[in-house]
Structures are given as C-alpha cells and as structure tokens.
Design a protein that fits this description.
The chain is mainly alpha-helical and 438 residues long. The protein is 61% helix and 4% strand. Helix 1 runs parallel beside helix 3, helix 3 crosses helix 4 and helix 4 packs antiparallel against helix 5.
C-alpha cells in the first residue's frame, strides 16, 4: 500500500508539471505517450503471474457451497458467508483466499496503479487536428492493454482478499473494467506483449463475470464464529438477567412503599402520642421526687426515731475532763508514732547524700523526697489516698537502695576476667606438675 501511494503521488506530481491545468483534465497524444512509455511499456507483462486464473481443473472456483459448521470457521484459507435461500433456510458459502507472494505483490500492485492512471487519463484524451489515424489506433490498443492488465491484476486481488467486503469491491471493479475499457478487445487490437493475456482474461471473465456471483459476494454476511456466538449469548443472557433484576427491584420498592404507606396510615389511626427523650427524662426526675416525698411523708426513713435518740443524749457530759482521758491517751500515742516515722524517714533521706558518685546520687535521688514527706499529711483524705501518699516514697527509696546494693554485690567485668585468668593459670600449673613428676 505504501508503494502504491508513492506511485500515485509521483504520477500526480508529474501530471501537474506536464498539464497546463489540473482542473482542465485534458491530455494530448504526447502526454499519454510519455506516460505509457515510462510506466507499462517499460517492461512487458508476465503471463505466468496470472496462471491460476486460466482455464483448467487446477484453477480455483470463485465460490462454493459448504455445509453449515458448528459455530466455527469450517475451512482454512476460506472466507465463509451466509445467505438466505428462497426456501428461507440459511446457505453457507466459502470463498477462497489465495494470497499474493511478495514478488507478485511488488510487481502487480505497481503495474495496477499505472494501468488505472493510464485509463483515467485516457478518458480525458484531447485529440487535435494533427493526430493521424495510426495514432488513434495505437491509443486504442494501449487502452485495451491497460484495461486487460488491470482486469487480471484485480482478479488476483479478488482471490487474495481475506474478507467479504474486499472481495465485493474487487469484483465490482472487475465488472466495471469488463463492461468499460476492456469491452471489444481482440487479439489483433492488442499490442504484441499483451496478447497472451487475452485467453486468461476470457477464462477469468467466464468465472468471475456472472451477475449471480456479484450478487452473492456483495450480499452474504460473515459467518459468526464460536467466540462471537458465545459472546452474543452471554450478552443476551446478561440483558435478560438485568431486566429480571430491575423488574424484581422495582417490585420490591413498590411493595416497600405500599407497606410504608400502610404503616403510616395505621399509626395515624391509632392516635398514640410518641414522647421525646426530653419528656421521658423529665418524667423520670419528677417520679423520683415524688417517691422521695412519699418516703418523707410516711416516715419510712425513720427520721423520728433518729431525732428521739439524739435528743436523749446528755451532751453536758462531754465537757467533763474524765471523759476525754482516753482520747488524750490515743492522741499522745499517735504523736509518738508520727515522731518515730519522721525520725526513720529523715534517716532514710540521708541516703541521697551518702556518695559523691553522680551515678549513685541519681539512683538514690527518690530517698531525698522522704525528708518531711509525712509532716503535712491530710488525715481527712480517704484511706487509699493516704496509703499511696505514705507508702509511695518509702517503697521507691527502698527499691533504689536494694538496686544499688545488688550492683555492689555483683563482681565487675575486670574481677571476672582476672578470676577466669587465675583459674586458667591454675589448670596449666596442675598439668605442668603432673607432667614433670618423676
């Protein structure tokens, strides 16, 4: 295709340089003669390139009927199409695919472009008064030659097309050439190098030139393969499923809307007030207040008995010194215990300054917090808080002190190494003494 495009571009460029006006599209004998000499006449056609188009049993048929296949392509090297017969049944037809070789393609495509260009320009031949009869005869012979070669090359392209639209285009062009520039061609009217092509063209026209074949090629539909059929079935099934699901969803939504309307109608007919959370909370508080008032009213808290017991107490005896003796004794013992605790804690607080080593001082720093830690205890606090306030600093100091003592009790790395060395020396000495004994 690139070669064909390049040839067309070169030809049109040459025409623009040679013709006075492209719009005028008129070509003289000299211009057509130059085009013929530079293109088709530069090399004679090779009849062997069209041997498969000739008559004979080995020549391929343009089409044949085949039995329907099971959703697949029935034969390798065929394009298969379907058509409806008069009885309404489906007929399957196979059209052969015969590719062009690389050598044939390079030559035939170039010569086809030249032939089509020459035929196109010959239609706009502009005769002048000086053109002789021989000139017109030569132009007519060259027209037949170009049409004949274009016909045979197009026939080769018909067989090489690998799809039905491509074969339809080639077959349509074959019929146009046969009924147009090639009609009336005889061996005597052809240039000598093109005469061997005429019998091949006649045999080709007998096979490809029928109206039945043209109608068949351009009307059949490609056979759907197995993969396409499976995909089509899947698509149809999915469409059915989606339609059924959508109908079911619409039905469900309709039923839900109907139930919602029915429920709302039922609620409206019941006329039942629905209380908010604030109203419920207010009712709960008022209920509790009412219950407390009932307790007070009925004296279920035994307030009268409590007041009577308090009234019976003789408070004048509390001012007697003898009644406070036990309290004073307990207070004195408590003061003694507190003094002992302060003494012990003050002594333990000095652990923070027992060493000038910064590392030891940092480890025993919690002990400094024991100094005066218990002189301002708030005895009105609950038992758990007081226990934590009293035991916390004490246990922290004791734990740090134990850690320091444990560090001193563990041997250092240097002592461990020296002990291992001494043990090794002793083993060597023992071995030596056992060796040197007489």
């Amino acid at each position: 295709m690139r070669a064909l495009a390049a040839i067309l571009l070169w030809t049109f460029a040459s025409a623009a340089a040679q013709a006075d006006s492209i719009v005028q599209r008129a070509y003289t004998w000299q211009q057509l003669d130059q085009l013929w000499s530079r293109t088709l006449a530069a090399a004679s056609p090779d009849p062997t390139r069209f041997s498969l188009l000739g008559a004979g049993a080995s020549a391929p048929a343009p089409s044949r009927d085949v039995p329907p296949s099971d959703l697949g392509v029935p034969f390798a090297g065929d394009v298969v199409g379907e058509s409806a017969n008069p009885q309404g049944a489906t007929s399957v037809h196979a059209f052969p695919v015969i590719p062009l070789s690389a050598d044939d393609a390079s030559v035939l495509m170039r010569r086809l472009a030249w032939a089509e260009i020459y035929l196109g320009r010959y239609r706009y031949f502009a005769p002048v008064s000086t053109d002789a009869a021989d000139t017109l005869t030569t132009l007519s012979a060259r027209q037949y030659a170009a049409a004949l070669e274009a016909y045979l090359i197009t026939a080769r392209l018909y067989f090489s097309a690998d799809d039905l639209p491509g074969k339809c285009v080639r077959l349509t062009r074959l019929n146009e050439i046969a009924k147009g520039p090639m009609s009336g061609a005889t061996a005597d009217a052809l240039p000598e190098p093109w005469r061997p092509l005429l019998p091949i063209a006649q045999a080709t026209r007998d096979k490809l030139g029928t109206d039945v074949l043209a109608k068949l090629v351009c009307s059949v539909q490609p056979v759907r393969g197995r993969a396409d059929t499976v995909k089509l079935v899947e698509t149809r099934v999915q469409e059915k499923i989606i339609t059924a699901v959508r109908a079911k969803v619409d039905e469900t939504l309709g039923l839900m809307n109907a139930k919602a309307t029915e429920f709302q109608t039922l609620v409206n007919n019941m006329n039942v007030p629905i209380k908010s959370a604030e109203v419920i909370e207010l009712e709960r508080v008022l209920g509790n207040a009412q219950a407390n008032m009932v307790l007070v009213k009925e004296d279920q808290l035994k307030a009268a008995a409590t007041i009577a017991a308090l009234s019976a107490v003789d408070l004048s005896t509390l001012n007697q010194p003898t009644s406070l003796q036990e309290f004073q004794n307990g207070k004195t013992k408590l003061a003694t215990v507190v003094d002992q605790i302060n003494s012990v804690m003050t002594t333990m607080a000095t652990l923070a300054q027992v060493s000038n080593d910064p590392a030891l001082s940092a480890q025993l720093a919690p002990c400094a917090a024991l100094q005066g830690a218990y002189s301002a205890l708030d005895l009105s606090r609950d038992t758990g808080a007081l226990t934590a306030q009293i035991d916390g600093p004490y246990e922290a100091c004791i734990n740090q002190a134990r850690t320091v003592v444990a560090q001193f009790q563990q041997p250092s790395l240097e002592k461990t190494q020296m002990a291992a060395l001494a043990k090794f020396v002793r083993q060597i000495s023992e071995a030596y003494l056992l060796t040197v004994q007489p």
